[in-house]
Amino acid sequence: MSTSTQQGPSAATEPDSDRMVVAVDGPSGSGKSSVCRAAAARLGAAYLDTGAMYRAATWYCVQQNVALRDEDAVAVAVEELPLNISTDPQHQIITVGETDVTAEIRAPQISEKVSDVATNRKARQVLIGAQRRIIDQAGFIVAEGRDITTVVAPDAQVRVLLTASAEARLRRRGAQLGDGQSAEALKRQVLDRDRRDSATTNFTEAADGVAVLDSSELTFDETVDSLIGRVESVQETAADGL
Predict the structure, then answer these.
(1) The Cytidylate kinase domain covers which part of the protein (predicted)?
(2) Number of neighbours of residue 65 by Cβ within 10 angstroms
(3) Annotated binding-site members for ATP
(4) Residue 182 has pLDDT above 90, yes or no
(5) In this predicted model, what pLDDT tens digit does every residue of 125-174 receive, in sequence order?
(6) Into how many domains does the chain fold?
């Protein structure tokens, strides 16, 4: 897999022994991307949307006419994927080769197919390796995705499961996608996708050492503040230990 990044504000060229990794996972529609992007911007950290990598891989497979249920063919396509993903929280651009796919990978047709790649164990290993390399090079990064706290970055200093009620998640995803999405389509993209993806990843229950942040009754700003508060608490504890 050919992966490059447009670096975020604190990206480093070499792995940093004093790195700070903030790992956030959770179900569809919980607000991971928007909350983590805002928190990273305020903290001056890089930002990684691992879900966008799966979406870009799905887009690429569709463009290459790869049968998504063919595990080996998908894995080969992901190995060949020429992906560039921004780690700047204020300027997110995702390209595949020379094509800007930032908007296209959020289309409903990609949302309904991405589970075929996300549950492909061979493809996952390729993508997880790429995600770890990006995190290791970043220095200070907020990374979010379904298995980020348990598989990709289990050693992160801050690990949070960001969750919300099914009603809140459906409402938020509907607002994100705008008019034109039926209730059934939203259910397929949120609840049904969670059910399929949970076959390979546990993102509904917090693993040991992972804090739960339930945003069902919180505003967006309150959720961002809560996440930042957890990061700053860890930073203060680390500083006191010096």
Answers:
(1) 22-231
(2) 8
(3) 26-34
(4) no
(5) 999 999 999 999 998 999 999 889 999 999 999 999 998 887 777 776 66
(6) 1
Q: Indicate left, alpha or beta for 191 from its phi (over 0: left) and psi (-120 to 50: alpha).
A: alpha
Mean pLDDT of 70-79: 96
What SS3 string covers the chain?
A: CEEEEECCCCCCCCCCCCCEEEEEECCCCCCHHHHHHHHHHHHCCEEEEHHHHHHHHHHHHHHCCCCCCCHHHHHHHHHHCEEEEECCCCCCCEEECCEECCCHHHCHHHHCCHHHHHCCHHHHHHHHHHHHHHHHHHCEEEEECCCHHHHHCCCCCEEEEEECCHHHHHHHHHHHHCCCCCHHHHHHHHHHHHHHHCCCCCCCCCCCCCEEEECCCCCHHHHHHHHHHHHHHHHHHHHHCC
Token duo for residue 230: 């957890």
How far apart, in whole angstroms, are the C-alpha atoms of residue 49 and residue 145?
7
| pTM recorded for the entire structure | 0.81
Average pLDDT taken over every residue of the chain: 85
| Phi, psi of 31, rounded to the nearest 5 degrees | 100, 15
Q: Phi and psi dihedrals of 17, rounded to 5?
A: -65, -20
Whether pLDDT at 109 is above 80? yes
Q: Which domain holds residue 72?
A: 2-240
Positive or negative, the CA dihedral 118, 78, 95, 90 is positive
